Amino acid sequence: MSKIEVNTIEPQSGTTVTVGASGDTITIPSGATLDASNATTTLPANVVTTDGTQTLTNKTINASQLTGTITPSDGTVTTAKIGANEVTGAKLNNDVISAQTELASEPADTDEFLVSDAGTIKRIDYSLIKGGGLTMADQWRITADFSSQSGVITSNFEQIDGTGQGTLGSAMTQSSGIFTFPSTGIYLVKFNHNYYYNGFNQYNQARIDVTTNNSSFSTVAEGNQATANESSNFYVSTMVETLVDVTDTANVKVRFQLSSQNTITTRGRSSDNLTNFTFIRLGDT
């Protein structure tokens, strides 16, 4: 084996120096450095021809010169390196949702979802897509009989609490017979007046009154019944209902009023519903 020791190799003529012939292998031993940082280097047509890793420093490589599999180091590909519209459904694993942390309660109104709006991905708040089911249903009753000819019912109220009975959502509140709604919305309000009278009574009116300013009330629904001229108590039930648009819980309220030709006995009991009042929120105002 021959050995050449020189400091500089220059072409005898022209500007090209050839090292070896076609088919030869030029071996650079371990520990040696081939420094071409200040030179113009012409790379072969294919830089990588098999799977593996090649390291080139300070060199520009055209994409046409790369073949095979190039594996970047972990954590080195940034979002800036991924072109817009390049990630498609085929690149998403089936667990892209199920692998995330579970939300174990109803989403907040401002929680966001992805939707396809005619093929365009957009976000939408939960408040715009949540179900429109009932969120509030409440019922109250009179707990004991009382006699009167006319006037607003102001006492002996209780929320239902009997066997098998129940309510939904936030409750109504009342003070001296004036009921306040727990939230704004459209409400169905029902008044079932159960009473008796001994003898002929030409009319008995059951009314629902509404205020929109927490002051003056107007009758918005009225039901009428009469009793026959009997020698014993005649039992009657009158049902009246209305829809109430509660735009402001501080000002929109309801009360229940009676008006009769004679003094009647309104029936009430704490164990079941006789005279009772129902409130159901149907939806937003």
Summary?
The protein has strands spanning 112-117, 120-125, 136-142, 146-152, 157-159, 173-175, 178-180, 185-198, 201-211, 218-227, 233-246, 253-266, 276-283. The protein has 285 residues and is mainly β.
Known CATH architecture of the domain at 136-283: Sandwich
Main β-sheet description:
11 strands, antiparallel
The string of secondary-structure elements, in order, is EEEEEEEEEEEEE
**H/I helix tally:** 0
Structural class: mainly beta
Please write the CATH class name of the domain at 136-283.
Mainly Beta
Which percent range fits the helix content?
under 10%
CATH topology of the domain at 136-283: Jelly Rolls
Q: N-to-C terminal Cα separation, in Å?
A: 98 Å
Strand content: 35-45%
Shape: rod-shaped
Number of strands: 13
How much is the average pLDDT? 88
Rg for CA atoms: 43 Å
The oligomerization state is single chain
Poorly predicted residue ranges = none
